[in-house]
Design goal:
It is built from four helices and four strands; from the N terminus they run αααββαββ. It is an alpha+beta fold and about 160 residues long.
């Protein structure tokens, strides 16, 4: 360290100023290149934690309502085949519904041709939420155009 100090003292005033300014610039660049990205990452992480905490609070608030809904699935007086036919037509799947037949143990094997995939998934979810009807199994094949499928879905009342 003493040799470095002797060497610095041996420089002219102009060279000392240049070395001092260069050192300050190097420290500033170091701060900008290393410390600032770290600080930005910490700030983004803190924002993510805040969002996750808000999500957790919402989930905890909704948990009791979901537990109650899960305990008592909705019921309908309609037979499963009537429910499938009516609800598929209401969901815009009437043209695609090609048949339903009993599959054993109260299940129904329902066939669709050239059905809109998203609409079909929404319909299956609606059956589960509103009527307690679960998809026991499903097979899908591409229907020729994007988003269109041929499908066989086995549905059963849960519980």
């Amino acid at each position: 360290m003493a040799a470095l100090r002797d060497r610095f003292d041996a420089l002219s005033d102009r060279e000392r100023r240049l070395v001092t300014i260069g050192g300050v610039v190097a420290v500033v660049l170091l701060l900008v290149a290393i410390v600032m990205p770290i600080e930005r990452g910490v700030s983004q992480s803190a924002e993510r934690v805040t969002r996750k905490q808000a999500d957790l609070g919402w989930i905890q608030q909704m948990a009791p309502a979901l537990a109650v809904a899960r305990q008592a699935p909705p019921t309908t007086s309609e037979s499963l085949i009537v429910l499938i036919d009516r609800s598929a037509r209401e969901a815009g799947l009437g043209q695609a519904l090609t048949g339903s037949q009993p599959s054993g143990n109260g299940a129904m094997r329902t066939q669709f041709e050239k059905a809109d995939f998203d609409r079909l998934m929404d319909w299956i979810a609606m059956l589960a939420q509103q009527y307690g009807v679960q998809a026991e199994s499903a097979t899908f094949e591409a229907g020729g155009t994007a988003g269109v499928v041929d499908a066989v879905v086995v549905l059963r009342h849960s519980g």
